[in-house]
Specification:
Largest sheet: none
Distance between the termini: 49 Å
Shape: flat
Order of helices and strands: HHHHHHH
Radius of gyration: 20 Å
Strand content: under 5%
Amino acid sequence: MATSSLRYLRGLNTARIILWSYLLWYLWVVVRYFDASPSLWLNSLGISAIIGTGLYLSTSFAGATRTRLEPWQVLRLYLMPLCVSSFAALIKGKGFVLIFHPTLRDNAFGFAMIGGFVAVVLLARGRARPEASDLVRMAHDCPRAQARD
């Protein structure tokens, strides 16, 4: 189990790290502001079924040939509308700005969870920090940076 988990973490690309980060932020909001109202969750499931089916049809059957999606891709097409609609219902009237909690403490905890996850991925890859990106190298090579050096 541990070996397959490490292999999975090592293989995560940037897009999947971002998707996992979205899920962590969503789960923090659900834990913090949970509402057991059946109507909230039934409405979210209904929206998920309608929008998820539309997304599935638009990605699998919209072109001249059918595009085969992996099971996890299909799950995400239905999971995202569920998360978005329940997120919106849970934060309504709670003082959120866009997706951010009304308190610095809650935002810090959410970002710490995501940072911890990214750190685990980097450790699984066998390095403590990411390699310098092209953007960092470009910034260092710009004329203003060279003038300061």
